[in-house]
Amino acid sequence: MSGRGGKATLIAVAVVLVWLVIGGVAGPYAGRLSEVATNDNAAFLPTDAEATRAQDLAGEFVDRQTIPALVVYERPAGITDADRQRVNADAARFAQIPGVVTPLPPPIPSKDGQALQVVVPVDDAEGEEIGEIVEQLRDITGGDRDGLTVDVSGPAGLLADLIKVFSAIDGPLLLVTLVVVLVILLIVYRSPVLWIFPLLAAGMSYALASVFVYLLADADVVKLNGQAQGILTVLVFGAGTDYALLLIARYREELHRHDRPWQAMKTAWKGAAPAIIASGGTVIVSLLCLLLSSLNSNRALGPVAAIGIAATLLVMLTFLPALLVLGGRWAFWPRQPRADQADPRAEHGIWARIAGFVARHARPVWLSTAVVLALLTLGLTQLGATTLGQSDLFTQRTDSVDGQDVISRHYPAGTGSPATIFTTEQTARQVAQVAKDVPGIADVRPLTAGPQTGPPEENAAPKVVDGRVQLEATLTDPPDSDGAERTIRELRVAVHQVPDADAVVGGFTAINVDTSDAAKRDQNVIIPVVLVVIAVILALLLRALLAPLLLIATVLLSFAATLGLCALLFRHVFDFPGVDSAFPLFAFVFLVALGIDYNIFLMSRVREESVKRGTRAGVLSGLAVTGGVITSAGIVLAATFSALAVLPLVVLVELGTAVAIGVLIDTIIVRSLLVPALAYDIGPKIWWPGRMSRANGEREARGAG
Question: Domain 369-397+515-704: what homologous superfamily?
């Protein structure tokens, strides 16, 4: 035995050394993901939408496509001559910034005489550099002075503020996530040593995932944006710690049964690995279903997050076991497990009592918990999915938000970000007249030939490209508002009805409209596919059909209850105006994929125990030995996703809150009470049509007899 033990120790040392070398190579890439992230507008466009076609047509009318920065000056007492001189001087300096497309149009005065606006076209090809160009604009203006307020807004200003947020993801989010995981591990293990192993393994997982994501994004195989980057961080640490908790809990059990740590790990690995692999595989496949999305932002998240989970699985099933074997029993100090052949249920007194309660009141327990969750789903009426406006994207005020408010006070709110209409030269006048008659349209003018040094003249000759004309329609509502989106929908209906016009409507607001529509389409396509995939994996793992269907039903109920509770919190506690149109799909993929993890952890152990003891006894034993680790895992995952709240973006705060609440509902209510009580009440039939449903049914019938 000593020879085997020595060989096992050498293998563990070799595995650890190999991983440390890999970590040394991969580690630096974790801090370089921002270098290959793309946060420009193209990263979030629908690939096949009217707004995308319009953007392609717009490229034919200009030498360079631009994104406007709107520099707005406001003096409530009235703009002075000195203010005008300052604005003209600033505009001259704006024109000298590399990336700014000249000549600039002259400043636009407001009708009330209280504001001046300078439209600064920025070359769209600058990509991430647009953020730096906007910062230069802000440096030139010098901010507020002597009662004159200055803000840089518009699509370029908004994009710059988003880039600034996403570029700061690496440090703060990673630090907060590490601290959260560390604190919870110390509480769970009550050991000054053991927390090191899962945290080190999670860090290795993040480094390995980062190097693959970096290389693939750099080669343009996958698209990485700041949103996907932030979710990757919390997902790897959260899911990685979950897998570590499950393996360590099983390892601790086996240390009571085996003299040598390597023997205990061998048995623990065989017992825990199938559940961990099935869990990780379910999450990976669910995330890859996002590739069916028509939105680039969704398709970017799918493979990036799936790479993170795959790297986590590999590390947690190789590096972590090797560390634990080398750590031996002393890693659990001061509560070191002894080889005393103790029943693992003896260490889980509180969960044994909960299991007893479930056994005595199975039907009332699952009925009452199902009713509570069903009542929470009533909050869905408050959800109000929409496209968040510019002022609603951030949890705090930004320069672009302040600037949009100023523009809304003094100009038609859509000034500087018009809707674009492309139509045939022959129908241009008719289309323009039809567009003017649409409520919410302030003005419609053609794009004219020659340098655009000011607003196009209403009767000027339009620029014609391949028989097409571009019209610019100024909206009365802010371009990111619900009112503007309604106007775009009505505008499209109106111009599409003009015979032979072949009209195409695009622009900033049209992109929001098409993004929202694509998000709804994605929900209808992806959610059923994810459910089918999960059902197949559960059926293969549990070798049954009834159990997977019931488990999916509980997950869907938990998901709906979570969204209902979140809707109430977002509206009445956080005072958010609504949720982004992509939120329900993201919440579904993460909550269902991660929620099914705990079903897998519980029911795979229940099945294992049912083979030995019978179904009802197996349910109680499985609940007793996994209740603590599943609850701990849920708390870790909830806490890591809540770390997204440190980012000042409403959509990520909402997603982090939803996943945190949903995971806690899953672990505390669904997995601890609803599922065990339901399985206990149904009995052996839960495994229908598998052989175990008949074998356990006969065993329990004999026991009852």
Answer: Multidrug efflux transporter AcrB transmembrane domain (1.20.1640.10)
